[in-house]
Amino acid sequence: MKRIAVKIGSNVLTRADGTLDITRMSALVDQTVALRRKGVEVILISSGAVASGRSEIKIDRKLDPVSARQLYSAVGQAKLINKYYELFREHGFVCGQVLTTKESLGSRIDYLNQRHCMQVMLENGIIPIVNENDTISVTELMFTDNDELSGLVATMMGVDGLIILSNIDGIYDGNPSDPASRVIREVSGSRDDLAEYIQPGKSSFGRGGMLTKCNIARKVADEGIPVVIANGKRDDILLNIIEQPATTLCTRFTASAKAASTVKKWIAHSSGFAKGAIRINEGAEIALKGPKATSLLFVGILSIEGEFEKDDIVEIINEQGVQIGVGCAAYSSEAACELIGQHDVKPMVHYNYLYLD
To answer: Strand 251-253 vs strand 227-231: parallel, antiparallel, or unpaired?
Structure first.
């Protein structure tokens, strides 16, 4: 592998009392440096800012969830990146901070700007450390968690692999606390029964759970990037995943042989950015899901919902209101409404800008 993305969860970087686990953080930095010296570019997507801030300051009044997250992250992000900077500097490496928001990645131009920023960093030997900017994000515009962000970064940067580090060894075939449960070592695109194994609970300090990790992993793997879910608290886990894949305990998601284009990869992770929806009839749904590459034509559209401009992301929903995909609109909602049902006009969503769930 020449380039990997590594997502480090809050429960990997924090102790039970919410304080930063500097020993574990240092170990992960050591492994990242070892990989860099072997020629592997590493992009870190690091949680821990809110947990870090929570352990640093004490407040004497109750705050609403958004205010608390903004306050803790403002303090914690400075503490977290400063510690990363110190640890990397001890090895003669420099890291840089990339803060982003879900809203800022909804624009193709902003998306490309952020990709260029990280590309420049990598070309100059800088290790990017990416995190959501919780100081300005509000609940309805936030990523589900950094798992979602890591999937977007992985596809954005065209990595050769995504490693999601949690505090358990992977996806189990039962309750992880049951001694009889075993880690599912490999997941291929054909397996669709994982939901029955996954525990619904979330981690102590993070916002997401194993179900989110699984969904993100499958989506990224479908786009041609292999994904690993592993225990970030195990010694040398990053090195073992890369150098001893056959014997390292983890869950591996096999990459699809058919890689998506960079535009489709962006659209695949853009459902949360949708400005409106296009409701289609059964015939259009069958055509889109068929084996032949098909664009969304106006003859198959029932209605346009919401207000959006040309090039905005829109959801594609069927007659029952179920989302079947997302795409980049070739028309504004106003212009599209006037063309519903018409033949011989440019597609509402071209196949090259369409991603089906």
So the answer is: antiparallel
Q: What was the pLDDT predicted at 207?
A: 40
127, β-bridge pairs: 95
The torsion angle over the Cα atoms of residues 13, 16, 22 and 27, rounded to 10 degrees, is: -60
**Predicted local distance difference test score (pLDDT) of residue 85:** 97
For residue 31, give both structure tokens. 């492994």
β-bridge mates for residue 326, sequence order: 315, 355
Contacts of 154 (CB under 8 A, 6+ apart): 5, 162, 220, 225, 227
pLDDT at 2: 93
* Among 256, 137, 274, residue whose Cα is nearest residue 207: 137
State how far the alpha carbon of 238 is from the alpha carbons of 117, 184, 231, 284, in Å. 25, 19, 10, 45
pLDDT given at position 203 = 44
**Is the CB of residue 202 less than 8 Å from the CB of residue 147?**
no
What local confidence, expressed as pLDDT, does residue 224 receive?
87
Residue 4: strand pairing partners: 42, 161
Structure tokens at 90: 């001890």
Beta-strand relationship, 161-166 and 3-8 = parallel
| 142-181 tens-digit pLDDT | 565 688 889 989 989 999 999 999 999 998 887 778 888 8
Residues of the chain with pLDDT under 70: 136-145, 189-209, 258-261, 271
Residue 273: what pLDDT? 76
158: CB partners within 8 A, 6+ apart:
3, 262
190, 253 in Cβ contact below 8 A?
A: no
- What lies within 8 Å, CB to CB, of 74 at 6+ separation is 53, 135
Determine contact, residues 98/117, Cβ cutoff 8 Å.
yes
What local confidence, expressed as pLDDT, does residue 144 receive?
Answer: 57
